[in-house]
Amino acid sequence: MTGPLPELRTARLHLRPLAPGDAAALARIAGHPKVAPNIFVATIPWPEVEAAALIARDTWRGTLGFRLAICLPEGRMIGSIGVSRQPHIFYFLDPDSWGRGYAREAVRAFADAVQTRFDLPVLGAEVFTDNPASGKVLKACGFARTGQSMATSRARLEPAPVFLYERRQPEKALS
Predict the structure, then answer these.
(1) Where is the N-acetyltransferase domain (predicted)?
(2) What is the pLDDT of residue 172?
(3) pLDDT digits over 40-99, tens only?
(4) CA pair distance 175, 161, nearest whole angstrom
(5) Hey, is 137 helix, strand or coil?
(6) What are phi and psi of 55, to 5 degrees?
(7) What domains sit in the chain, N to C, each tagged with a CATH number?
């Protein structure tokens, strides 16, 4: 499918395409010491120039392999969410926004939209095993743990174990 991905709005959030002006906020949030070890792309700190390159690389082009900004209604960016070509979902929030249900709200809306738009019977995710809060978010959004593997994060010294998750659309998974 091509064309712009509709901006997603939930009761409390606005998910929109990332823009070049988001690089500073993206670098600050993703490069936070509590965030970077749980995602694959960032270092501590994460240079703004690298965040800008990621925004340019992961912009919406009508295919899988893009990310959106997670914003509060007044426009403040509090995180990012996206989907890889595999397709696996990924997301992170500013620690100041943890514990408020924002991740669950964003993941549910985004996963629903991506699976519908791209007609995906299965959507995957990976979560470092020492990040149980993210696993709880995925479970609350219909993902089931399916296995374990190893993954690398630029903010970790060596590969670490991850839990693998899948979210199936029942009518698609059976056909």
Answers:
(1) 13-171
(2) 56
(3) 999 999 999 999 999 999 998 889 999 999 999 999 999 999 999 999 999 999 999 999
(4) 32
(5) helix
(6) -60, -45
(7) 8-173 (3.40.630.30)
CA-to-CA distance for 92 and 78, rounded, in angstroms?
9
Local structure of residue 105 (DSSP, 8 states):
H
* CB neighbour list of residue 47: distance below 8 Å, 6 or more residues apart: 27, 31
| pLDDT for res 36 | 98
pTM of the model: 0.94
Distances (CA, A) of 42 to 10, 74, 98, 104, 106: 27, 26, 19, 22, 21
The token pair that represents 94 in the structure block: 């500013």
98: DSSP letter: T
DSSP string, 6-38: PPEE-SS-EEEE--GGGHHHHHHHHTSTTTGGG
- Which helix (H) or strand (E) segment holds residue 119: the answer is none
Cα separation, 46 vs 42, whole angstroms? 6
Which candidate, 66, 79, 71, 96, places its Cα nearest to that of 1? 66
pLDDT computed for residue 2 by the predictor: 46
- The sheet carrying 77-83 orders its strands as 8-9, 14-17, 66-71, 77-83, 88-93, 122-128, 160-168, 144-151
Q: How many helices (H) and strands (E) does the chain have?
A: 5, 8
